[in-house]
Amino acid sequence: MQRTLALFLGLALTAGITSGCAAQRISAEKAVAQAFISDEQEEQIGAQVKKELEQKEKIQYVQDPAIMEYVNRVVTPILRAANKDRKGVKWKVHVINDPKTVNAFATPGGYLYVYTGLLLAADTEAEVAGVLAHEAGHVVGRHSARAMVHAYGLQTITQLALGKDPGTAAKIAAQLVGGGALLAHGRSEETEADEYGARYAAAANYDPKGLITFFQKLRKMQGDTPGVLKWLSTHPTNADRIRHLEQYIAQKNLRGTETGTERLAPIKKQLGGK
């Protein structure tokens, strides 16, 4: 088994990752990630990342039941749609109490995090839904697992797949948090997550253009509040990306009627916003 696994990994990584062709590299990483990093292993890494965040970043979670009920109500139909593309994910949603940070991110194992600053920055529930759907898309696309293949190479992934080194998951989690690579995704991964996000938002009957309006708003705000809008620094947005998302929504005829402005307003007020 070990020899067969090593041979497969070697062929995939050599043919794709070292070929210099981005498309082949992504295809190879995805194949290896899907075949040899199980849902259980991603869950283990995600749990360890959560522990690292709590210990090193000292993050504080929102405990208000009304806020948590609101976020869960928004995200539930989105995750129901995501489960059709990737079964076996045990989703966990956390709201981080930090009104100055406009951010959301996903980690392996279906862990979704959203900052209260993002809830305060959004104008509509559809924008919140679009961001959460985008992050769910990163999980469905196994983007963190693909990044592990690219970053840690054949030997580490082999050890993880074979269970030879019980500490491998913990080491990867610590390096992800400590190295700042936790939120970093390439252009192809961001495009794929945008497309997933538009689909999942529409499937939940939200206006799929919510993610676009959120992009546009933050681009305008960024010049006035540098250092606060973290989401743009880790999800770089340009006119081409927005244009692609607009074209994708039109081509796929994605529609949703919900904007949810009236439901978001009291939540923002409860969080201390206007």
Describe this structure in words.
This protein is mainly alpha-helical and 274 residues long. The chain has one domain. It is built from 13 helices and 3 strands; from the N terminus they run H-H-H-H-E-E-E-H-H-H-H-H-H-H-H-H. The protein has a 3-stranded mixed β-sheet. It is globular. The model is unreliable at 1-19 (pLDDT under 50).
Q: How many separate domains? A: 1
Count of beta strands: 3
Task: Please give the order of strands in the largest beta sheet.
Answer: 1-3-2
Question: Nearest-angstrom radius of gyration?
Answer: 19 Å
* H and E string: HHHHEEEHHHHHHHHH
Counting copies of identical and different chains, the oligomeric state is single chain
> Biggest sheet, in brief?
3 strands, mixed
Q: Whole-number average pLDDT? A: 81
Q: Per DSSP, what share of the residues sits in E-state strands of 2 or more residues?
A: 5-15%
Shape: globular
Distance between the termini: 60 Å
Low-confidence stretches: 1-19
Structural class: mainly alpha
- Tell me the number of helical segments per DSSP (H or I, 4 or more residues long): 13
> Helicity range of the residues?
55-70%
